Amino acid sequence: MLAMRSPDGERSPPIALRKRRRIADGCAPRRLQTTMARMSILPIAVWGESVLHRVNRPVEAFDDALGALVADMFETMRAAPGVGLAAPQVGVDARLFVYGWDDDNGVEHKGVAVNPELFVSPYPLEPLTPQDDDEGCLSVPGYRYPTRRAARAILRAYDEHGEYYEKEAEGWLARIWQHEYDHLDGILYVNRLEGKYGASARRQIRAEGWGVPGLSWTPGVDDIDA
Ligand code: NI
Question: Which end of the chain is more exposed for a tag (fewer CB within 10 A), N or C?
């Protein structure tokens, strides 16, 4: 999950995360069995939960349960607030992410990517720029670090109805796609951090007591500046 950038770009104080009910690997949350269920905000898994750190499984059925999961993921992403959210972040082992971001002209870029492929341009080799290159992740709440990303990307995926599409993006939207796509391969942006940024992030994750299964936080319930 990609967090929104905050003006100060700095970490918030350590936060207490709640132990949550374990979500069995590969199982959607129980309420997904109800096709007409109201949307709900889902708990967001924190660094250390195993489903975040493995290659996720392809989605096999474009059914009501998938539609309900997508609706809940959008609800959870907006509540966080964030601009992207991947299924493993809500405890679901599935290759699927949602995104929603308003560009500087107020144009909304929103979508669902099921079983995506992502093609990216070569990485720029210039030094990273704090602020401009800062990323955050709702599964590593409260931190931001400069992260190297390709400037352009092509996304090929299915929407929640099984419609295939291809889109191109550059800049921040291309960054969102790369961040979310990585989640489906068990890669968090922290895994990509360079030099002092990586060392600092690992130190802070240890200090938070993360890196163990079972931690989550819920937007609107836990008061966290993610
Ligand atoms: Ni993330």
Answer: C
